[in-house]
Amino acid sequence: MPATxxxxxxxxxxxxxxxxxxxxxxxPDPSSxxxxxxxxxxxxxxxxxxxxxxxxxxxxxGEELITEADxxxxxxxxVTLLVSAGEEYVGVKKESVTPGEAxxxxxxxxxxxxxxxxxLSVTQLATAAHTLPGIIHAVGQPDLxxxxxxxxxxxxxxxKWVHPPLIGGDIGCGxxxxxxxxxxxxxxxxxxxxxxxxxxxxEGPWRTQADREAWLQDAAGSCSAGEEWDQAVGTIGAGNxxxxxxxxxxxxxxxxxxxxHKDDVILLVHSGSRGYGGSILKKYTTESHISFEEDxxxxxxxxEEHDKACxxxxxxxDLIALRFLSCLEPGEEAWDxxxxxxxxxxxxxxxxxxxxxxxxxxxxxxxxxxxxRVKWPPCPPTGSTSGAAKxxxxxxxxxxxxxxxxxxxxxxxxxxxxxxxxxLPLDILPLPGSRxxxxxxxxPVFSAxxxxxxxxxxxxAHGAGRSMSRAKALSSLxxxxxxxxxxxxxxxxxxxxxVCDEKDLVFEEAPDAYKDVHAVGEDLVREGVAEVVGWCKxxxxxxxxxxxx
DNA sequence: ATGTGC
Length: 549
Known about the structure:
GO molecular function, one term: metal ion binding
Low-confidence stretches: 384-393
Binding site for Mn(2+) 1: 170, 241
CATH topology of the largest domain: tRNA-splicing ligase RtcB
Radius of gyration: 25 Å
Cofactor: Mn(2+)
Mean pLDDT: 90
Keywords: GTP-binding, Ligase, Manganese, Metal-binding, Nucleotide-binding
Number of helices: 13
Number of strands: 23
Number of domains: 2
EC number: 6.5.1.8
Shape: globular
Strand content: 25-35%
Distance between the termini: 36 Å
């Protein structure tokens, strides 16, 4: 059981102190029966012999702990809590440890009605919005669910400040969709099993470091992170990451004939920056230093590495897709580069050839863990169907209105509604259910009712969202499905073949551990931020395979 | 989510 070690001391005589372990089960809510506050009071009574403890201050700052939010933002390792019998704080009050201005009035909205939202995640959303400096708008998408400290399925818009922990360690994580040349009848029914069998050689490092560095060369230069992290490029990773072969069941995306059409077989890749992004978060932040002021050297350095990790993650998804395509379309020589066999041709020209080919296959690629500098408030895009859109001539979300200024949009498990490099609205993006359940095809909606994307902070849900913690899913679902093989379609239905050699993941990522993707989609539609333009059936879902290398 | 953290 994780516990936090704090020090309890007498406010009136601060040399008198005692350590206290606060179990993770203790509640920050002072009105709760198992509150941290009551633990501190009890410790003061029994260990420090303070008869009537009544107030608690934070050592060093003198901030009094009153609300649940106070407790939440304070309880960390080695904090000293000063217990008072009613008297004022003894010492010089300092400014809060977080410099800059928090915005206790910050607007917080959760775009969910149908999808169930855990109260803890709403508390996490509001606490972060109200206590971190510079936040001007916080949005919980319908897939909102609790994270370790900050929620997932959340968007935080800030002025002048960047908060790396709000986007987490998997910087650049996102999803990309690729068309394949497979036909529905090659993957439907029991054929899914044969397709799953073909998916091999996808684990472990791809080729040599020299090859990986060549792959990590993009239009902006190199995004190589050094051999220790680059080794993981082209690998899916753990947790909720996956690659899935899907059949388009319905599609009404007739935009320039692009978007996937009915009966197309497409590949969805969900992965991020593996260990690299986490190393960046760790390098720049500590438990008490999580906020960076705009234009500070640290902020600039973080942003530079953040942007590099985003490019790395994107290159990772492309390489994963290449490796999958080499299994799925063995006749296509260009994909041979995806295999771990020695180069038979010039590497650089092979890579540029493959890139061009893959670009034709790519439907969309988005980051859902990142921070972006954008103009705010949003402007109507010209692609919009409303007449109001005619006013802008730029065609961009950002526009060039004089009343706009720049903000930072932090996304943690939230997809953007526009293409980050062109600022044009996206035509289509995936809303995957959990393993094997349908993936909805979303089209972002921009309208006056949503203030052109302000309401949803220019973002949409990135998936179904957990409804059960990993621990809960593991214990309850492993019992529930004790006698069932979750890796094969159940019964006669056209279900999904799952490749997952990690036993715990089978349960942690089971559909039951997630919200219903249709409820999430319905919420987005009701809120007026997206329309559902089709859906895909998962045929083969690849998580991880333990194979002899 | 992670070449994780005691």
